[in-house]
Amino acid sequence: MTEEQMTEDKGQKSEDRRQKTEVGSQKTENRRQKTEDRRQRSEVRRQKAEDRGQKAEDGRQNSEYRISNVECRALEEEQTDLLGQGQDIETTVETVTEAVLFASDEPLSESRLSNIVETTVKQVRECIKNLNDKYQANNNAFRIEQIAGGYQMLTLGPYNYWLKKLLRARSDSKLSPAALESLAIIAYKQPVMRADIEAIRGVASGEVIRTLCYKGLVKIIGRAEVLGRPMLYGTTKKFLEVFGLNALKDLPTIEELKKPAS
Fold it and tell me: In terms of pTM, does the model score above 0.70?
């Protein structure tokens, strides 16, 4: 075999290898394309399944909405019947205001109260004043007090001794001495960083603060403009409700908290 023929033979073999490589690449591409096609088909099936699930959920919600409407109409008819039976009861803005406050388990703002009673804020204030005057004249055990920026019907302090026999403090509202100490610092120093609380108490307070946040008495109200931007803590509306305060300015002063000299 001449040198020229050997060169041609090598060239032919190289070309064969190149073609085989191209064929292998084409097969790999075909397999990749088939895999992609299967993935797309699976995605289409998943989307169809989701569409069917959404349609079923829409149907369920529509069914519940229809049931709810039927129940509301039935309730309205029942209330209408009850109102018809109680036609001898005269309702006034004052008595309606009293009924709403009596039934509410949370403070109601003047605007919300006026919207419910369908009257003006000024008339709501007059009704509350008149009701409190009546309660005082009749020596009733309750008054309408301003709490957390709203109004709520509350029993008077002198009756706490007997009410404590009836009521038991809920376990989730009990606070440890450490929690009360931290809460007092936050209430009087807010907005305050955790580092400041720990500096006053002399111990780590992270877990105590988390507990107060979990109970809804404390919340994050911002970040301090210092290195690291630590979180600032303050009290919540629930804090005012729990401790019977209308606003933070109603907190007792340091002088009032001092024990009287014996």
Answer: no
